[in-house]
Design a protein that fits this description.
Layout: E1 2-7, H1 12-26, E2 30-37, H2 48-66, E3 69-75, H3 85-98, E4 102-105, H4 113-128, E5 147-150, E6 162-165, H5 170-178, H6 181-190, H7 195-210, E7 215-220
Parallel strand pairs: 1-2, 1-4, 2-3, 4-5
Antiparallel strand pairs: 5-7, 6-7
Length: 234
């Protein structure tokens, strides 16, 4: 299968579905990790243009750890707009290029607008990618892929209906997350938050719910025609 995981900012995917991405890659599936935003506002000292370069490099390293191909749309933080047609066309092209059998992205309700707009962007573009007369760089993709919504930060307001056992990839998930040193180090030094432990604890909590050591939780998009009569998660 081709798996397309779309997160808003660099590190969003590692946090919410890094273990699942690693499992797909280990099983021989082709996995793509797409970041919509540059992550250029995610620091109080490093300036946006410099930070964008740093965070893209970190994201590329993290994707390599997980066994995925990295793609960036390059939208500025706080500027993600699912109604911006230029951005929609960029996402359409990502979908047409990757030809996903499944898309993983943010839940439709989350803690900030950029995440919600990314979810809406993926939903709209994944339909538009199948429309022949919507011309973009890549040829039309004649399918409307299923969408699986990934967990929210700290699991707030999100009740999974499906779980993936990531006990065998939890360390790989944390290794990939640790690549985002501009965020991990900042939170450790200035906010006194051990974010790696934070994410590991959330994975352990989902594991407790599903009877394994570590897990990630998901919920499918139930809009027609995105339901598959088979399990798509590993």
């Amino acid at each position: 299968m081709n798996i397309l995981a779309v997160g808003c900012h660099p590190d969003d995917l590692e946090i919410a579905c890094g273990g699942t991405i690693a499992k797909y890659a280990k099983a021989g599936h082709k996995v793509f990790m797409c970041c919509v935003a540059r992550g250029d506002m995610g620091h109080k000292i490093i300036q946006p243009e410099e930070l964008a370069v740093v965070r893209k490099s970190e994201a590329e390293k993290a994707a390599a750890v997980l066994g995925a191909e990295f793609i960036s749309l390059g939208v500025g933080d706080l500027l993600v707009n699912s109604h911006d047609e230029a951005t929609v066309d960029k996402m359409i092209d990502v979908i047409r290029y990757t030809k996903p059998d499944l898309i993983i992205t943010h839940n439709t309700e989350d803690y900030m607008r950029d995440h919600i707009e990314t979810s809406n962007l993926v939903f709209n573009a994944s339909f538009a990618a199948s429309i022949t007369h919507r011309a973009t760089k890549h040829e039309v993709f004649n399918a409307i892929p299923p969408i699986m919504y990934m967990d929210t930060l700290a699991g707030m307001g999100f009740i999974p209906t499906e779980y993936v056992d990531i006990s065998d990839t939890i360390e790989q998930k944390l290794e990939a997350l640790a690549c985002h040193d501009s965020q991990i180090a900042w939170m450790r030094e200035h906010d006194k938050i051990d974010f790696l432990d934070f994410v590991k604890t959330c994975s352990k909590y989902r594991g407790f719910q599903s009877g394994v050591a570590f897990a990630e939780g998901f919920r499918p998009c139930t809009n027609w025609p995105r339901i598959a009569a088979k399990r798509l998660l590993p």
